[in-house]
C-alpha cells in the first residue's frame, strides 16, 4: 500500500500509457470539454434569489385559499342540510297526496262501475315504481273493469280508459277540491250503460259535495240530469251562434213517469221553442234540434251544468 504523500500510479486509467504529446493533447482536450460542460450545467442551476419572495407569496395565497375553501365548505354543508329538509318536505307532501288518492281511487272506481249485475264494481290500483324517491319515478295505474281479468291500461277500450281517467280525476279532487269541473264530451267513447253510470255519479257528487260540473255533451242521457241546460245553435241568417237556457230544477220533484216525459219536453223546450234575447222571446227559424243533427256535423253543443 502506498505511503502518505506517495502517488498511486495504479489509480490511473488507461491514459497513463500515453506515448506522445499528440495523444496527451487529445486526452487533455477531452477533460477540458467535460469540465466546460459541467460548469455550464452548474450555471443553469444557480439558486434563484427571489425564491424566498415567491415562496412567501405562494404561502399567502395558499392560506387565503384554505380560508375560502373552509367558508365554502361550511356554506355547502348548510346547503346540503337545507336541500335534505326540502327533499323530506317534498317527499312527505307527495306521499300525503299519493296515499290519499291511492286510498280513495278504488272506491271512486267502484262507484263509477257498479251495476245490478256487478254490485261491487271494478277495482283500481296505484303503485309507485320507486317508493324511496317517488317523485323521480313513475306511478303505475291499473284499472280492472267488473267481470274482466286484469290487463294493462293500454289494453283497455276507449270507454274503459275514460271511466278510469274520471276515477283518477275525482280521487285527486277529493284531496284538493276545486270549485268546479269542466268535462268536455267525456261521454263520447261511452256506451249508454256507462253514460248512465257516469252521469249518476257526477250527479251524486254535486249533491253531496260543494262541487259544480260544467259538462259539454251531445247525449241527452247525460245532460238531462243537470240542474240547467245551455244550448248553442247556429243562426243561419245572421251567421252567428245563439244560446238557449233552461233550468231543470223544477222537474226534479216530478214522478218517474212524468220525469221521463219532461226529459223529452225539456229537450224540446231548450232546443226547439224559444230564445231569450234582451228580455224578449223569439223563435228562431232554424231550431237547434236541426242544427244538432248529423247533417250539420254537430254544430250545436249542449253544455250541462250540474
TrEMBL record:
Location (main, coarse): nucleus
Keywords for the protein's UniProt record, in alphabetical order: Cell cycle, Cell division, Mitosis, Nucleus
InterPro entries per record: P-loop_NTPase (IPR027417), RecF/RecN/SMC_N (IPR003395)
One GO cellular component term noted in the UniProt record for this chain: cohesin complex
Record GO terms (molecular function): DNA binding
Compartmental location: Nucleus
Highest taxon of the lineage: Eukaryota
Biased composition (Basic and acidic residues): 251-265
Ranges for domain RecF/RecN/SMC N-terminal: 61-239
Biased composition (Basic residues): 295-306
Keyword Methyltransferase appears in the UniProt entry: no
An annotated GO BP: sister chromatid cohesion
Cross-referenced Gene3D superfamilies: P-loop containing nucleotide triphosphate hydrolases
Region (Disordered): 251-306
Protein name (Swiss-Prot/TrEMBL): RecF/RecN/SMC N-terminal domain-containing protein
Taxonomic source organism: Lotharella oceanica
Amino acid at each position: 500500500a502506498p505511503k502518505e504523500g506517495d502517488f498511486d500510479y495504479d489509480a490511473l486509467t488507461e491514459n497513463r500509457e500515453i506515448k506522445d504529446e499528440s495523444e496527451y493533447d487529445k486526452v487533455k482536450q477531452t477533460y477540458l470539454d467535460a469540465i466546460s460542460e459541467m460548469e455550464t450545467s452548474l450555471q443553469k442551476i444557480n439558486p434563484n434569489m427571489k425564491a424566498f419572495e415567491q415562496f412567501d407569496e405562494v404561502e399567502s395565497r395558499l392560506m387565503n385559499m384554505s380560508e375560502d375553501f373552509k367558508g365554502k365548505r361550511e356554506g355547502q354543508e348548510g346547503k346540503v342540510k337545507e336541500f335534505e329538509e326540502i327533499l323530506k318536505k317534498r317527499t312527505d307532501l307527495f306521499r300525503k297526496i299519493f296515499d290519499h288518492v291511492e286510498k280513495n281511487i278504488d272506491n271512486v272506481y267502484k262507484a263509477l262501475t257498479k251495476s245490478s249485475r256487478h254490485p261491487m264494481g271494478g277495482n283500481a290500483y296505484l303503485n309507485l315504481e320507486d317508493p324511496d324517491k317517488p317523485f323521480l319515478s313513475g306511478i303505475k295505474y291499473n284499472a280492472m273493469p267488473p267481470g274482466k281479468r286484469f290487463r294493462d291500461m293500454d289494453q283497455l277500450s276507449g270507454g274503459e280508459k275514460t271511466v278510469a281517467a274520471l276515477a283518477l280525476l275525482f280521487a285527486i279532487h277529493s284531496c284538493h277540491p276545486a270549485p268546479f269541473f269542466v268535462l268536455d264530451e267525456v261521454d263520447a267513447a261511452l256506451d249508454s250503460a256507462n253514460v248512465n253510470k257516469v252521469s249518476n255519479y257526477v250527479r251524486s257528487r254535486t249533491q253531496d259535495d260543494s262541487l259544480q260540473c260544467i259538462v259539454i255533451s251531445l247525449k241527452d242521457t247525460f245532460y238531462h240530469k243537470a240542474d240547467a241546460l245551455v244550448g248553442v245553435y247556429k243562426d243561419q241568417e245572421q251567421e252567428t251562434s245563439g244560446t238557449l237556457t233552461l233550468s231543470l230544477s223544477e222537474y226534479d220533484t216530478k214522478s218517474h213517469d212524468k220525469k221521463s216525459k219532461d226529459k223529452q219536453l225539456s229537450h224540446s223546450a231548450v232546443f226547439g221553442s224559444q230564445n231569450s234575447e234582451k228580455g224578449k222571446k223569439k223563435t228562431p227559424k232554424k231550431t237547434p234540434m236541426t242544427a244538432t243533427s248529423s247533417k250539420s256535423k254537430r254544430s250545436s253543443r249542449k253544455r250541462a251544468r250540474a
